[in-house]
Design a protein that fits this description.
This protein is 9% helix and 37% strand. The chain has 5 helices and 32 strands. The strands form 7 sheets. It has a 6-stranded mixed sheet, with no helix packed on it. A 6-stranded mixed sheet has the order 21-20-25-30-27-28. A hairpin with a 2-residue loop joins strand 14 and strand 15. One of its GO terms (molecular function) is hydroquinone:oxygen oxidoreductase activity.
Amino acid sequence: MRLKVKIFIQQIIVFLFLLGLLPAHAFVHHHRFIIKEAPYSKLCSSKNILTVNGQFPGPVIYANTGDTLVVNVQNDGTQNITIHWHGVKQPRYPWSDGPEFITQCPIRPGTNFSQRINLSDEEGTLWWHAHSDWSRATVNGALIIRPANKTNYPFPRPAAEVPIILGEWWKSDIQAVVNEFIASGGDANKSDAFLINGQPGDLYPCSTNDTFKLTVEKDKTYLLRIVNAVMNNLMFFSVANHQLTVVGTDGAYVKPFKSNYITISPGETIDVLLEANQNPNHYYMGAKAYNSVVGVPFDNTTTTAIIQYRGNYTASSPPIFPDLPNFDDTNASFNFTRSLKSLADNTHPINVPLNVTTNLLFTFSVNTLPCEDESCGGPNGDRFAASVNNISFVLPRIDILEAYYKNIQGVYGDEFPSFPPLNFNFTGDSLPVELQRPDRRTEVHVLEYGTNVEIVLQGTSLLGGVDHPIHLHGYSFYVVGAGFGNFDKDKDPLNYNLVDPPLQNTIAIVRNGWAAIRFKADNPGVWFMHCHLERHVSWGMEMAFIVKDGKGSQEKLLPPPPDMPQC
């Protein structure tokens, strides 16, 4: 069996080389992901969870800028699965992007799919995760992209690089949580713990030994590569008595700045330098949820890990605790995010689109739908829903990419609106209840190749409003502006940052506020955009772009591989 797989992968590589997708200097990394259940014990109880290679979190993947990954995914589990390479642009090749029924049909139990992941200009920390139902709760891992050969970090090389993956844990089976959540029409049960590198930390029951520990040497510097793999919460993160120097986000460098804490959205990555410059001791690093909505239940626990200095000394017991912002400190969350600015030096130039040719305004709302006999768990017995421009997205049963490539009719419509169909005071109080009812459709928005796109991502106050971390597949975008309230098309662009805006793939719209992003539509294919709060995805807060082919030979969508999963 392994020989057959090896031969097949070699055939794939030859196929890619003939297409001109593997330049002679590119290094190809081979990995095998076996999706399988494995037993794990936390918080005084045990359960089986879905994993990659039995690991939780999954294996860390290392590469250099411009390399190629070939990952053979074998599904030995009992449920469908897909793997998304979060933040990788996949130039002209969305076939390995991963979102279920958007760019591929799922990998069914007992089958496999060999994904090719082409790295381009990404450099820093990204990650990979399942993109089918809520499987990413346990199927995830870091993707570390180091500088290409003969290039360096834009900061002194650290003594060590340490992935820090923030996760979330339910004592119940995650699929049972999802099934109950969908059936009830209400909100999902809150989690029982947050995790740092798969461990809850010693503040939780039965967790004295379930604490990640990082040993450091005084006066050395460590690069923490932080990933928010939490399902439904933005997170605050801090290290007791240590300032953090922020140097990167979402696979791109930023102008270094010091902060006592970070705010990190689900899907986002933040790179920070930790200087071990304190008295030798034990110090907690901690993370807890940011929650801006009063009255909505959330997991208000704190996960911890321990920084322990090497040497002989009497450690504080318990370790020194970090000073984290209050759970509802919206200004702390917003101000940190607004502090991010691209490095934008000669070695790491940026290219912000200045001449915008396509302007879009997308509203992101939590909604409700009628429920039979008013027995659902949402407001007034209704069922929760969510929408973009008042369309609650319905996943098709054939993936949109295949339908687009093969011109299969009836799978999707191409009339996703450029602006909200209803114009109202998006962040006003006491909005009419009829605004809560979205349409349920499968619509895409078509972009011409090469257009310079600006999207204003506008949150609404329907059902109170909440922060929305919005992720776009296939692109990184420049966050040129953000603010509270309704976007003002005459005033707000005057304050745009067009000099050094951060280059990101996930941006949190502040509660009842907006963010403006720009990118050039130069990556043909089908690309998903969605909120990265998993319950909002389940409710329909998502849409897809089709970016059409350009005229040149290097501006066209590439053909699919021979082993695409079948629906």
